[in-house]
Amino acid sequence: MASQQTAAAPDRGSGLRRAVDGEAGEWFGLAARIGLAVVWAWAGLAKVADPAEAAQAVRAYEILPESLVKPIGYGLPFLELALALLLLIGLGTRIVAVISALLLLTFIGGISSAWARGISIDCGCFGGGGAVDSSQTEYLQEIMRDSGFLLLAAWLVYRPRTKLSADAWLSA
Amino acid sequence: MSEKNREGKRTARERMLEERAAEEARSKRKKKLIIGGVVLAVIAAGVITGVVVQNQRSKPDTPVAHPAGTIGDKNLVIPDGPANAPSVLTVYEDPRCPACGTFEREFSSTVNQLENQGKLYGNYHIVSFIDRSLGGKGSKYGANALACAQDAGKFREYHDVMYKNQPEETSDSFGDKSTLIDLAKQVPGLDSPTFESCVNDNKYAGWVSAVQQDFDKSSYKSTPTILLNGTPIYPKNGEEQISPENLAKWVDAANAGKPLGTVTSATPAP
Predict the structure, then answer these.
(1) Domain with B238 in it: what CATH number?
(2) Is A76 helix (H, G, I), strand (E, B) or coil?
């Protein structure tokens, strides 16, 4: 009786489990990896051209002291590009996904904070940034978008083994 | 004896398998650590290189070259009208900002008149941030062209022509240097080889960036920001809405009992 019960439980979820652990899961992981890589590459490239603009996007949140505005504004796009590169080749997928998730949580926190304090800014997520008219803020959309990206990162933390990755090639 | 022997053999085999498994786990862990190290190194190297490169690429807060006659501790401000006038009108404007165009078309004649009467000293901060949100170069090139006009002593005239011919915010016609040069032809005595090369070479790009960075660090968020003797008066001064009449009234009220500034025929101040 007892053994039947324990045997039945994993059986019920085994279809899903097989999909998650098996080939399909790894292909889905590849899609998540490439998707997140494109997001980071786009976000990073858009912020590289004008350093003053990138710094102002950071300053506009009115969170960091002036001494940190430039280092963060200048460095962040390259952090994003490095994450994009690592995701693209699939090296250290889990740790890169963890860093991605932490970064996205930071962004969501920053946008929420700006929203809560009633300041009117563009998140500067994909270039631009800085103060905007209060009618032009898009906090909810920005948070939803980042949350979507966060789901991709969370999947890769949960299942870092993906198709066509440097990780798979190195462990073979 | 034989049984004991077999048992000994088995434990030896088991031990060997265990050791091999442990060895494999060790090398797996080592590989993971190496990959993690490489990942962190790539990220750190990328970010550090990025910060250094961007630091070098970014234009300094204090410009290397500035247009003739600019004022303020970093020479970021273009003056217009008599420097010893009793009131100062501080104006932050972006060449592409539609609200600035509306302000200028409604108020420029009043402001010019007040300056000509020795009542008002104009201080212009030509900022250039619309390019950031809409893309393009019109704010930056337009600001540079205004700096070139300041060099030629024709800031006020060119500034007024520019705002009268301002394109829609989304159309970046000021991003085309030939448009800026064509507009200069409407100002007698402005268009010259010096002016054209100043516009075409984007001569004051560093100064334009410094003016914008100064605005970035200010508490003002939008343009036009208009201050009369340091107090914001646009769109309202306290409870009163700005209008050409009200502006003249406010200036007169602020100037009450003070001597007027010296008006010379040529506007540029030292």
Answers:
(1) 3.40.30.10
(2) helix
A64/B contact by beta carbon, under 8 A: no
**What's the burial of B130, exposed, middle or buried (CB within 10 Å: 0-12/13-18/19+)?**
buried
Is there a contact between A78 and B222 if contact means CB atoms under 8 Å apart? no
**Range B190-205 average pLDDT:** 97
Residue A15 above 80 pLDDT? no
User: Same structural domain for residues B131 and B247?
Assistant: yes
Q: Residue A92 and residue B38: Cβ atoms within 8 Å?
A: yes
Inter-chain touch A128–B221, beta carbons under 8 Å: no
- Helix B138-151 and helix B155-164: axis angle, to 10°? 150
B33/B160 same-domain check = no
Token reading at A62: 């009115």
Query: CB of B119 within 8 A of CB of B254?
Result: no
The whole-number average pLDDT for the span A93-106 is 97
User: With contacts defined as CB-CB under 8 Å, which chain A residues touch B38?
Assistant: 91-92
Check if B236 contacts A (Cβ < 8 Å).
no
Of B138-142, B150-154, B155-159, B169-173, the poorest mean pLDDT is in: B169-173
According to the model, what pLDDT value does residue A9 have? 47
A133 touches chain B (CB under 8 A): yes
Structural domain boundaries, residue B27: 1-58
Query: Is B89 a domain residue?
Result: yes
pLDDT digits (tens, 9 = 90+) for B126-141: 999 999 888 899 999 9
CA-based nearest distance A50→chain B, Å: 8
Q: pLDDT at residue A111 above 80? A: yes
> Which of A62, A78, A91, A95 to mutate to test binding with chain B, by most B CBs within 10 Å of its CB?
A78
A146 at B interface, C-beta within 8 A: no
Q: Read off the pLDDT of residues B62-119 as tens digits, 9 standing for 90 and up.
A: 888 999 999 999 999 999 999 999 999 999 999 999 999 999 999 999 999 999 999 9
Q: How many domains does chain B have?
A: 2
| ipTM computed for the complex | 0.83
Do B128 and B190 lie in one domain? The reply is yes
Residues B150, B124: Cα–Cα separation, whole Å: 11
Are A90 and A167 in contact by the 8 Å Cβ rule? The answer is: yes
Determine, yes or no, domain membership for A5.
Answer: no
Q: Is the pLDDT of residue A61 over 50?
A: yes
The answer on B184 and B223 residing in a single domain is yes
Residue B71, number of CB atoms within 10 A of its CB = 16
B53 and B109 in a single domain? The answer is no
Which 8-state DSSP code applies to residue B59? P
